[in-house]
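Hey, quick one: can you model this chain's 3D structure?
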Amino acid sequence: QVQLVESGGGLVQTGGSLRLSCAASGRTFSSYHMAWFRQAPGKEREFVSVITRSGPTFYTDSVKGRFTISRDNAKNTVYLQMNSLKPEDTALYYCAADKSNWNKPDYWGQGTQVTVSS
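Sure thing. Here's the predicted structure for all 118 residues.
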């Protein structure tokens, strides 16, 4: 099992930046695909980005060119650098992990709130 703890959320103005972090427990972090999802008020949770255990990254179209996902296996941490933030990025951001199906991860963090003011 793996436990995930997100941090780095907050309130930022349109056009600003935030970096989210997700610290994972355990000694097999490098074997997990690590993903970020988000859920806005009144909406379903949606995929944002994933970095696979071998390195390739994928993004939902709405964040391409603005968000960057990365991981540091030595620190058991995955990051989401968010630039050029928009009000529609406002959501609760969740870190997730899975060894096989990153679309339906088994492990989730508690979430960190990102609010972008207009």
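One thing worth noting: The two ends are 40 Å apart (CA to CA).
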